[in-house]
Amino acid sequence: MNLFEGKVNIYFAGIGGIGMSALARYFLAGGYNVAGYDRTESRLTGLLAEEGCIISYSDRVDSIPPEFMNREKTLVVYTPALPATSAIRAFFSEEGYTVVKRSALLGLISEHTLTVAIAGTHGKTTISTLAAYLLKQSEVDCTAFLGGISRNYDTNLLLGMGDYTVMEADEFDRSFHALSPAVALITSMDPDHLEVYGTHQAMIEAYNIFASRIREGGALVVHSSVRHLVRDIEGVRIYTYGESEGDDFRLAEADSTGGNWKFTVAWPSGVIEDLTWSVPGRPNLLNAVAGISLALLSGVKPPEIVRSLPLFRGVVRRLDVRLQNDRIVYIDDYAHHPAELDFLISSVREFYAGKIITAAFQPHLFTRTRDHAAAFAGSLDRVDRVFLLPVYPAREKPIKGVTSELIYKEMRLKDKMMVTPDELLEQLKLTETDVFITVGAGDIDRLTEPVKKILEERK
């Protein structure tokens, strides 16, 4: 079935998500009429409205624009983050509209382009944004659907003329099984989304199914620490990346000078020297190696990488330095899994050695809090002071007995406090620290401007 036959309208149920908004932009640029619903207004929805999307914030059927109330002319796309109880989602399904998941649309795009897909529990957004940047800055070019806002381009969608499309491979709800990559990468397979998979082993099997969807003649790059979990695939070359001597794409040398990293990458065709990377923290160097490996496998030439890498500015909400002066450093980050939190804190500890570090953390999802409370506590114990916010539920309903207090009770750190967002802002005015971090994948990002204002006014 041709999903687009006769369609001139595309309605996005849950349009404000980072992945959905990129698709909305893509089809808007393709000449379709685009509308959608989201629960709350945000910077993303505001920008979409400015670009020509019709957006409502009321989950009511009468909020759907009249011209989209036409089964033959309207395609409906929904995100699994929007519950089936949504009045708008239910209406379109019950009335016989063509309704598809976001992953199905990405799958169609994947089938018709040379897709570079990045999967893994953490690191996906930085690596995919870097890979897309390196392709855009070369003769190869690409289109890219990013899981964050690129600081170089100030958008989560890049449009290009080349054959390549870069996209994140989302493991939630097995969405990455819709993709057909030409080149893929797996960063890690730490247990996550166990509400979907049930067990860690079932999640690992899902990654292997994703890997098996790589086209014959394609390539898979995996971090060497998880290579043993990935089965060989007939017709697909499998490479490793890391710091070990036997890795195909290897961080060979690295030195930090003047706030930048100077490093060397060894790869099957030789050595690339004189690489410069300005993203803080040694752990992020492996993200650089991963992104470089994808660029090389997609045809980017080493001199193009050497030339463009120093100008890569990173991703909004990934080790995002929002304020830095002689009194305070303020960093905002999306980390929402213990491994990501460890990665963040290790990077900050290394880059700001000897400084007092305070973190405000908002747990994301009740199930993730339940499954990883002890691990979150262990990560947070590595900073000097913690403010713990209530759990952000996203798509979930509350689970009895599951609150931020589960993490709080597991922490050994003495200087900790459970706060509401308003209480956090008041406490921040009284808090002495050298580095302050807001962390989480929920709505904690709404505090970034108030936090920055308070810290800017600090004497």
Protein model, in words:
The protein is α/β, with parallel strands linked by helices and 459 residues long. It is built from 14 helices and 21 strands. It folds into three domains: 9-101, 3-Layer(aba) Sandwich (Rossmann fold); 113-311, Mur-like, catalytic domain (UDP-N-acetylmuramoyl-L-alanine:D-glutamate ligase, 3-Layer(aba) Sandwich), CATH 3.40.1190; 320-456, Protein-Tyrosine Phosphatase, Chain A (Alpha-Beta Complex), CATH 3.90.190.20. The protein is globular. The termini are far apart. Strands 8-7-9-6-10-11-12-13-14-15 form a ten-stranded mixed β-sheet, sandwiched between helices. Strands 16-17-21-18-19-20 form a six-stranded mixed β-sheet, with helices on both faces. It has helices at residues 18-29, 43-51, 87-94, 102-111, 124-136, 194-197, 200-212, 283-297, 302-308, 338-351, 366-380, 405-410, 421-428, 448-456; strands spanning 9-13, 33-37, 54-56, 74-78, 98-101, 114-119, 143-150, 155-158, 164-168, 183-186, 219-223, 237-242, 249-257, 260-267, 270-277, 320-324, 329-333, 357-361, 385-388, 416-418, 435-439.
Provide a short characterization of the protein structure.
By secondary structure, this protein is an alpha/beta fold. It has 14 helices and 21 strands.
Write the layout of secondary structure elements.
Layout: E1 9-13, H1 18-29, E2 33-37, H2 43-51, E3 54-56, E4 74-78, H3 87-94, E5 98-101, H4 102-111, E6 114-119, H5 124-136, E7 143-150, E8 155-158, E9 164-168, E10 183-186, H6 194-197, H7 200-212, E11 219-223, E12 237-242, E13 249-257, E14 260-267, E15 270-277, H8 283-297, H9 302-308, E16 320-324, E17 329-333, H10 338-351, E18 357-361, H11 366-380, E19 385-388, H12 405-410, E20 416-418, H13 421-428, E21 435-439, H14 448-456
Parallel strand pairs: 1-2, 1-4, 2-3, 4-5, 6-9, 6-10, 7-9, 10-11, 11-12, 12-13, 17-21, 18-19, 18-21, 19-20
Antiparallel strand pairs: 7-8, 13-14, 14-15, 16-17
Helix pairs in contact: 1-2, 5-8, 10-11
